[in-house]
Structure formats: C-alpha cells, structure tokens
Amino acid sequence: MSDAGALDPLEIAEAWHAEGRAVAIATVIQTWGSAPRPAGSHLVIDGDGNFEGSVSGGCVEGAVISEAADVIATGHPRTLEFGVADETAWRVGLSCGGTIRVHLERLG
Q: 3-class DSSP state for residue 108?
C-alpha cells in the first residue's frame, strides 16, 4: 500500500475479522526469478471477494482470490504454485519468468 498512514494487509485482515467477515490470508512463501513481491508479502480476501495487498503485483491475484473462496468455505489451507514451467503461466501472467509459491489460509 502506498499511503504512509495506511494499514498493512494483516491489520486489515484483523479489522475485517473483528467485523465478523470471513477472511483468508495469502502469504508469499517462496519466489524465484522475476517475482515482483518478496516472500512475506500478503494479500487478504474476504468472503465477498474484497481484497487488499498483493502477492505478485497483479500476476496471480485473480487465481489466488478464486482459490480463497474455497479456503474460506472449507477452512482447509493450501499452497499454490505458479511459474513459467506451470501450465497456468500464460493464464495468470507470469510469462516474464520466475515462480511464486503462496500459502493460503482462513483467519480464525
């Protein structure tokens, strides 16, 4: 987030959770090559598909948000991997190179 006083995604996740929203947190756990976000970056998603933060600068957010709906519904965490050797590379936009692993879990 670019605003100096803005909350980070984990603070937003806590606020949304306190409001009673179902929330999933996506965390970059590993990157290789040209991945635009470092390990430890977060994307938070609520049950309505609202989101804050970034795990890839726009390359895989759509796929992560889609998977978050199932993680929120089932409570089962999962790890997602995207990269140029993966069949989803062109669909999710990592055609520039690199790989990214993202862990997705429900808050609470």
A: coil
DSSP-assigned states of every residue in 59-87: SSHHHHHHHHHHHHHH---EEEEEETTST
How many other C-beta atoms can be found within 10 angstroms of the C-beta atom of residue 40? 8
Q: Where are the domains of the chain?
A: 9-106
Q: Token pair 């989803």 is at which residue?
A: 88
- Give φ, ψ of 52 to 5 degrees: -140, 150
Burial state string for 91-102 with b = 16 or more CB within 10 A and e = fewer than 16: ebbbeeebbbbb
Structure confidence at residue 70 as a pLDDT band (50, 70, 90) = very high
Which pLDDT score, from 0 to 100, does residue 2 have?
43
Annotate 60-86 with b (16+ C-beta within 10 A) or e (fewer).
Answer: bbebbbebbeebbeeeeeeebebbeee
Q: How far are the Cα atoms of 6, 15, 24, 45, 53 from residue 10, in angstroms, in the given order?
A: 12, 9, 10, 11, 9
